[in-house]
Amino acid sequence: MRGTLAALLLAGAFASARAGGLAIVATELTDNGDHDGYADTNETVELWLTVKNTTATNLTGVTAQVSIVSGTTACLVDASAFMGDLPAGAELRAAEPLVFHVKSTQDRGTLGLSPYGTLTAAFDLAFTASPTSPAAFPPELILDLDLDVAAVVPTTVTEDFESGGFGRFSVQNLDFGLHVGDGETGPVVGYRCQYHEPYCDHASCDFSDSLPGATAASANAVWWRIDGPSTPGGGRGFSGDHALYFGEALGPPLGYTTPTGVLEAIATTDPIHIAGGRWCSNAGTTACLSDAGCPAGGSCVDVAPTLSFKHQMSVMDYRSIANTAPQTCLDRGVVSLQLADSSGAPVGPWVRLEPSINVHDQTPTAVFINATFDPTDDGNTGNNVSPPFGPSDGLLRRGPSSTCADERVFGWMGSTTGAFDPLATGGADGPGLAGASGPGTWVETRYDLSRYRGRSVRIRFLASTTRIGSAVTWKDIWGSDVPWDDGWWIDDVTIGGATSSAGLVANDTHDNSGLTVDADLDGTDDLCEDNCLGTPNPSQADLDADGVGDACDTCTDGDADGFADPGHPASTCALDNCPLVSNPSQADSDLDGEGDACDACPTIPDAGGDADADGAGDVCDCAPSNPQTYPGAPEVNDGLDNQCAGDQGFGPVDEIATLVIERATVSWAPQPLATSYTIGTRRGTRYTSTVSCGTATYFDTQGTVGTPPSGQTIFILVRARAPHVGSWGRNSSGVERTVPCASPP
Predict the structure, then answer these.
(1) What 3-state DSSP class applies to 291?
(2) How many CB atoms lie within 10 A of CB 392?
(3) Residue 351 near residue 340, CB atoms below 8 Å
(4) Which domains does the chain have, with CATH numbers?
(5) What pLDDT was estimated at residue 14?
(6) Is the dihedral of CA 52, 90, 363, 469 positive or negative?
(7) How many Cα atoms occupy the beta-carbon half-sphere of 260 within 13 Å?
(8) 3-state SS assignment for residue 294
(9) Residue 7 near residue 65, CB atoms below 8 Å
(10) Which residues partner with 251 through β-bridges?
(11) Which candidate, 413, 411, 433, 412, places its Cα nearest to that of 422?
C-alpha cells in the first residue's frame, strides 16, 4: 500500500545482491560492403563480441544467442555464436561471429533521414554456458544503420578534477524554478515519475511533497561540487585528492548528507569526439580495411570506444528505509549520453546508458506517495505511461524514464566510509579499488560506446532524490551522521577511443544493390525477405501467415486445421472441405463434400444455397425466405414463430425463454426487436388461470414483483408488450398459456 515515508534506521551489515554475468566490453562489426564499422543497407554483417566473465564461476562452452527486439530493419542469418571457455574474471573475444543482414529498405536517403535520425537494429542478447547460464550486461544491443564516418586517430580523454573545478563538466540544474505553484499543476508537471503524475490519482494526496526541493532555494541550489582538501570533509580522490561529488560535506562529526527532492545533473560542456574507422592493432595510428593493410603480425580492428569512471556511492535505499524491498532505493543516479552535430549543437534527447562492468545495482521503489523526479529532456515525461497501465493503476503504473521504477539505477557502489577494503564493493561486482586519498573503497564502472563510433557526444551524470516534506537534507531527518546518505563521488572519468577532432558523420551513399542475394530472381532479397527461397514468389503472398510463401508452401492452410486451401498448386497435403472454418476431423455427415463445420445443412446433401443468408441452407431451412426463422433460431419480436417444427420453442410466438428470479426482482434476456415488456403475477397457495398482468410497462429487462404474504407463493410470467404482444410461454404440460389478464396488458 502506498503511504507516507516511514523511516527506520537499521543496524548491522547488509548483504548486497551483485549482478555477476557476462559483460559486453566491446563489439566489432565486419561487413561485405564498405568495411567502415557500420551496418549499411543490404550488407551482411558479422557481429563480434568481446565479453568479460564478472561472475565468480569458471564457465565452459559459452555461447551467445541473439534475437530481434522488434521492427523490420534487419534479419538474423546466424543467431548463435560460440565464445569458448571463460574463467572467472577473464575477458575473451568470441571464436565466431553472430551474423545479421540489413534489409534493402533501410536506406537513410530513401527514408528522408539525416545522419542524426533514428535508424537502428536492436538485438536481445543471452548466453548459455556450463555450469550456469549467466546474464548479459547490457542485455540489449542497439546498432545505428546506414552511416559513414571518417577515420580519426583514437586517443584517450580523462577528467580527474584535480584543478579543483568541474573541468570539462558544467552543472545542469534541472529542477531550477520548479518549486512554484500548488503542487498539482504548474511547471513541475511532467517532471514527476509516472506514479506521481498527474499527481493526485491515488487515495492519499500530500501536495507538500509534490514539488522539487523542500524550499525554492533548495530546488534552485547546486548540489554538485568538487570535494577536495579544503572542504569540510577533507576531500577524497581516486588518483589525487579531488573528486566530483553530489551531496553536502558537513565536516566532523556530521560527515556527509544528500539533499531531498532534487533533480540535478552535471554534463560535459563541450562534445567529446569518438574515434571511428579501423586501425592496426600493432600500429595504432595506421588506418586499415583489412589485416593486409597492417604491419606483419597485426590485425585490422574497429576502434573500441569506452566510457569508464571510478566512484563511491551510498544514497537512501533499502538499508535504512522500512517498507522497501531488498535492492530497491529512494534516491538514485544514472549516466546519460546526448549526440552533438558538427557544430557542437545538441541533437536529440539524452539517452540513459547501460553499463557492462559494475552495472546498476538497484531498482527505484514506488511504494510511497513522496514524489520522485525525472528529466523531461530524455524523450519522455511523467505522462508517458507504458501500456497496459493507466493513470489509476497505482503501483503498477510505469512508463519509459531515466530514473523511475522499473529502470535500473546506481544506489550503493563501493564504500563511502572506513579504510580501504577490497571486499567492500556494495552492490557492485568489484573488484574494490584503493583511492589515493580519503576514506572508502572505489569501484570502476565501464560502458561500451561502440555504437557511437565517429560521433560527437556529451556525457552527463544525473542524480534524483525523493522529496521528504520540509526536510532540506536527509541529515535533517536523521539528526546525526549515518552512512546511508553520504552521496556520490566520481573520479577519473575516461573516454577511451576518443579523438581530438570531430569525425564527419554522413549518410552512407554506397551503391549496395550488388550485395543483394536473389537466386530465384523474384526481386526479393533471399537473406532477409524472401519467403520462398529458390522459388519465384514476387508478391510474397503468404495466405496462412506461416512464414512460408504460397508459391512454395506444401500446405497453404488458412484455418490451420492441417488441410490445404484449394487453389494453391504447391500444396501436397489433402484439400480442406471447410477452407474458411477449422475442421480438423474433416467430418462430412451428408457426404456432400462440404464439412460439417461449415455445411449449412450438415445432415442433408445440398448445393450450399442459402437464399435468405441466415446460415441455414435452403433445403433444411423451414423458412428459406425469412432470415429470422431457421432451425435453432432465437425468438425475435416480429409477430412470427422463429423456430422450426421440432425445435425447442416451436409453437408460441414471441415468447420469453428464460427468467431469473432473485428475491423480489425478476430479470430476463432481452428479446431482439422488443421495445417493452409486461410482468404477470399471481399470489396464492397454488397457480390459477387468472393472472394479474399489471399496468406497468418495463423498457429494460428487469422488474420488481414484491414479496408474497407469509404462506403464499408468487407465480411470475413475462411477455413482450411492443411492438408485438408476445406469448406467456408454455405451462408445465407443454401447452401454451392462453389465460386472460385481470388487468390490461
Answers:
(1) helix
(2) 9
(3) no
(4) 21-148 (2.60.40.10), 155-499 (no CATH), 636-745 (2.60.40)
(5) 63
(6) negative
(7) 24
(8) coil
(9) no
(10) 255
(11) 433
CA trace torsion 549, 553, 557, 563 (10° rounding): 180
Cβ atoms of 273 and 157 closer than 8 Å: no
Reduced to 3 states (helix: H, G, I; strand: E, B; else coil), residue 147 is: strand
Q: How many CB atoms lie within 10 A of CB 155?
A: 15
> pLDDT band for position 434 (50/70/90)?
very high
Nearest Cα to 77, choosing from 85, 86, 68? 68
Which of 415, 460, 397 has its CA nearest to residue 170?
A: 460
CA geometry: angle 277, 280, 285, nearest 5 deg: 75
CA distance 606 to 593: 10
Those residues with Cβ within 8 angstroms of residue 507's Cβ, 6 or more apart along the chain or in another chain: 108, 109, 113, 114, 115, 146, 147, 148
Q: How many CB atoms lie within 10 A of CB 67?
A: 11
What are the CA-CA distances from residue 113 to residues 74, 119, 146, 386 (Å)? 17, 8, 10, 27
Secondary-structure breakdown of the chain: helix, strand, coil percentages, each rounded to the nearest 5:
5, 30, 65
> What is d(CA 572, CA 575) in angstroms, rounded to the nearest whole number?
9
Backbone dihedral angles phi then psi of residue 619, each to the nearest 5 degrees:
-75, -15
User: Which residues in 99-137 are b (16+ Cβ under 10 Å) and which e?
Assistant: bbbbbbebbbeeeebebeeebbbebebebebeeebbbbb
With the C-alpha atoms ordered 500, 505, 509, 514, is the resulting torsion angle positive or negative?
Answer: positive
Contacts of 319 (CB under 8 A, 6+ apart): 10, 14, 412, 484
What's the rounded Cα separation, in Å, for the pair 488 and 410? Answer: 10
228: phi > 0 → left, psi -120 to 50 → alpha, else beta; which?
beta
The residues near 696 (Cβ < 8 Å, ≥ 6 apart) are 678, 679, 703
- With bands split at pLDDT 50, 70 and 90, how would you rate the model's confidence at 2? very low
For residue 170, what are the β-bridge partners? 267
Cell of 103: 534489409
Q: What are phi and psi of 208, to 5 degrees?
A: -65, -20
Q: Is the pTM of this model over 0.85?
A: no
Phi, psi (deg, nearest 5) at residue 66: -125, 155
Nearest to 471 by CA among 248, 254, 214: 214
Q: Which residues of 164-194 are buried (b: 16+ CB within 10 A; e: fewer)?
A: eebbbbebbbbbbebbeeebeeeebbebbbb
- 530 to 100, 104, 401, 568: CA distances (angstroms): 15, 12, 38, 18
Query: Which carries the bigger pLDDT value, residue 208 or residue 732?
Result: 732
β-pair type (135-137, 21-31): parallel
State the DSSP string of 190-214: TTB-GGGSSTT-SS---GGGSSSSS
Q: Which three cell numbers stand for residue 222?
A: 547546486
- pLDDT class of 741 with cuts at 50, 70, 90: low
**In this structure, what C-alpha cell is assigned to residue 305?**
570506444
Which triple of cell numbers denotes residue 525? Answer: 532479397
pLDDT bracket for residue 554 (50, 70, 90): confident
C-alpha span between 350 and 375 (Å, rounded): 9
* CA 42 – CA 20 distance, rounded (Å): 37
Q: Find the mean pLDDT for residues 504-530.
A: 81
Q: How far apart are CA 563 and CA 582, in angstroms?
A: 9
List phi, psi (to 5°) of 91.
-120, 140
Strand partners, 661: 666
Cα angle value 442/444/450 (rounded, 5°)? 165
| The three grid cell numbers given for residue 29, joined into one nine-digit string | 562489426
Q: How many CA atoms lie within 13 A of 519 on its CB side?
A: 8
In the 8-state DSSP scheme, what is residue 586?
-
* Kind plus residue range of the DSSP H or E element containing 445: strand 443-448
